[in-house]
């Protein structure tokens, strides 16, 4: 596995992430936001690519503490060190997913990718999120 100077394989736009998931049957999408975000904001749907989305918190809700079981929970999704399965990490705006991609790479998982802009992007000029990211470009998602 090749990693760049960032400590993980690289960044993908939401569309590039979708294309990778659609083209590589081994690729896995992992949402690393919190349970509250999954429930109240919505979740990406990869089912149109023939795969489901994995959900593993990077930080635990409501404590905000790092998830000490992050790597073992990734492995519970069927990922194994050295298996070469692409892992596409997504969070709210593309910050936690960078940390997740680095941790996965350090554990020998991946190649690991970060989705730029995440699920809903940064806060826009109007003070709200949702102008960027997975949802804004029209990729499949659902409200739980």
TrEMBL record:
Keywords: Transferase. Residues 23-128 form the Rhodanese domain. PROSITE patterns: RHODANESE_3. One of its GO terms (molecular function) is transferase activity. The keyword Transferase applies. This is Sulfurtransferase. It comes from Cellulomonas bogoriensis 69B4 = DSM 16987. The lineage of its organism: Bacteria, Bacillati, Actinomycetota, Actinomycetes, Micrococcales.
